[in-house]
Predict the 3D structure of the following.
Amino acid sequence: MNFLKKIFQKKEETLNLSFNELSPWLIKNIEFSLDQEIKEIEEAKISFKKAINILEEAKIKDKAGKRIETAVNTNKNTYITALKAFENKIELPSKYNYSYLKQYTLNFKDKIKNLNKRTIRNYHIIKTLIGEELEEVAKKLRGVDQSIDNLTNRIEKNKLKEIEEIHERLKELNEILISNKEKTTTEKELKKSQKSLLEKEKTIKEKIEKLEDSEEFKEYNQLKQKRDENKKQINDLNSDFLSYYLSIERSIRKFLKDDKKTIEKLKQPQKFFLNNTEEFQKILKQIKENIESKKVVIKNPEKTTQQITELLNFSDKYKTQIKKLKEELEKNKNKLKQNQFKEKLIELTKSLEELEKRLTKKTTQIEETKHHTIEESVEIIEKNLKKLGHKIIIKNVALDR
């Protein structure tokens, strides 16, 4: 198993390397192996297991009384069970990256600390009658512990963490450079498409400007103004008519209190008048006659009769003018329908809106193809190389791809 290794002599001079030259240089100059440390752990584990087995077979040589011997043998069995469980959990590293190895050594330290804490009483009781085999177990356990310490010292001394980060950043840089190359191609295609869309947008805007400066537009505007003026005049006439009517509405309702059908029609007085002019005027005249002959008694009879007279006089004018205005309005509406300006403008505007949506999408796509920066990764690589004793400047990173 080969790993990166720092060379032992620091190089004082600054070395300029291109991106493509860096990986081969790293392999050649800072490779190191953990074979020895892993072998030490494996051998220490084997020696420890043998020592446990020897202790398990060990017999009490000195007579110390049945009660004491029973206590020692009981504690020995408990102690050996704990040692075997601990030994079974000693595994060789399955990965060789810094974070895993760091956690591996920390976990071992926690396990050995817990083992010592749980078995210290057993150890001292056994020691009263069994010495040499017990001491050999303790010695071999310290050997396992020392092998783990050697592994820790090796990865820290040779700065495995910094070396790993260099390779991670190299991988990241390589991915960025490949991505940037692909994005450059995509960006060119997108910008070409964007240019075509911008030219189409310009053409449509020019057509809209030309259309808005045409005789067709002027005619459309004039017709639209006439139509709006017709509508306003019709609304004004309707308002005047309604104003006259409302001034005598109570009198009309009183006069027609038994004629619910006519009262219902008078909820829309203008419509009733235009559709039934003679009937409407006849009702007004009858009310006026009844007031004047005092057949109907109301407050302010003179004022009411005057208002009725005003409505009668206005109604003739209203009917004539409203008819004329509606005819003009219809005529202007028809002319507006024939005028193609609005239809053309809607079509061009719709095309422009669709085009601008596509342009917005294209602009977003171009923004997404912006190149990732490489400066941060390069700086971290150079910084970690310096920690390893090498002053290296990485040149032409982007040009190497």
In short: Residues 214-339 form one domain. Residues 206 and 212 are 10 Å apart (CA to CA). Confidence is low (pLDDT under 50) at residues 1-11. Strands lie at 2-3, 11-18, 32-33, 390-395.
